[in-house]
Amino acid sequence: GNSVTQMEGPVTLSEEAFLTINCTYTATGYPSLFWYVQYPGEGLQLLLKATKADDKGSNKGFEATYRKETTSFHLEKGSVQVSDSAVYFCALSVPYSGAGSYQLTFGKGTKLSVIP
Amino acid sequence: GAVVSQHPSRVICKSGTSVKIECRSLDFQATTMFWYRQFPKKSLMLMATSNEGSKATYEQGVEKDKFLINHASLTLSTLTVTSAHPEDSSFYICSAIKGIGNTIYFGEGSWLTVV
Questions:
Q1: Which of A26, A34, A87, A104 to mutate to test the interface with B (most CBs of B within 10 A)?
Q2: S-S: A2 plus which of A40, A105, A108, B109, CB 3.0-4.6 Å?
Q3: Angle B20-B12-B110 from CA coordinates, rounded to 5°
Q4: Nearest Cβ partner of B97 from A41, A46, A102?
Q5: Rounded to whole angstroms, how far apart are CA atoms B44 and B13?
């Protein structure tokens, strides 16, 4: 089956610190990989994605590279801000036909708190 | 702004009662919506795929008679937890597929506490 393992939180960093949240996966087939973010009181939002090996997804200063050889998709940001405080979810989907392509398998989520 | 809205965001109900959670797509029609739940320190788990005008497809281990899903219109899916028990206390979140680009949007989530 499919599964996603991500770094347990919570993670507390000072502003401008470097962030890494580890994510590894197992999947049947060739998955697409995602990072979602949930800010307090809001729904999950897509942060970035990658659909094939060696692709790098990036958005808002965050990056993650699809590493097929290590089955990983670690999230990084060079300099975090207080506004990045949120819960981050790593996820995958396997491209079946129809609506099944949109079924996501999530990690447990990592809560990030950035302090001034 | 939000394109998928869930209501209520938090609900407390007594054991044995039923509670309904709504998921609405605000500016698009969604023939397919998904319901997930998350127990503390666990992953978000897909419960069911909700299809407009037809029966929902439930994941293995999810009781369809306990978690009733109704997708009666193209903008609304409801999840009703029937005869709720404390172990049903969880975070429930829905998502919907927006047609162009097939982007998935999530609701804000609903915290259910059964006492």
A1: A104
A2: A105
A3: 55
A4: A102
A5: 22
